Amino acid sequence: MAVTKEQVKYIASLAKLEIDEKDLDAFTKEMEQIIEFADSLNTIDTEGIAPTAHIQGIENVLRPDSTPVQFDTEKLLSNAPEKVDTCFSVPKVVE
């Protein structure tokens, strides 16, 4: 597939890239090579090959649920310099 300079300029504008006129020929040639490579993948015989989403088998690793550790609130707050109800009280740091 032939790639034109206008197509390269358009794609560059979509990507918010600025391409100098002196580099335009090189980018056009490179994009043409990339598209030729992608087209060559269409010639590969994939008959009988199952589609995959990942190269390795993926399984969920599950663990049994456990009861969370519970602490005594009064014991936790016993060393707090200041407390309000069941919460630590700290000075305001954002004005």
Radius of gyration: 31 Å
Counting copies of identical and different chains, the oligomeric state is: single chain
Secondary structure tally, helices: 3
Biggest β-sheet strands, sense, barrel: 2 strands, antiparallel
Assign the structural class, choosing from mainly alpha, mainly beta, alpha/beta, alpha+beta, or little secondary structure: mainly alpha
What can you see in these coordinates?
It is a single chain. The protein is mostly helical and 95 residues long. It is 37% helix and 4% strand. It is built from three helices and two strands; from the N terminus they run αααββ. Helix 1 crosses helix 2 (21-40). The longest helix has 20 residues, at 21-40. The mean pLDDT is 90.
Question: Could you give a short description of this structure?
Answer:
With 95 residues, this protein is mainly alpha-helical. It has a domain at 5-43. Helix content is 37%, strand content 4%.
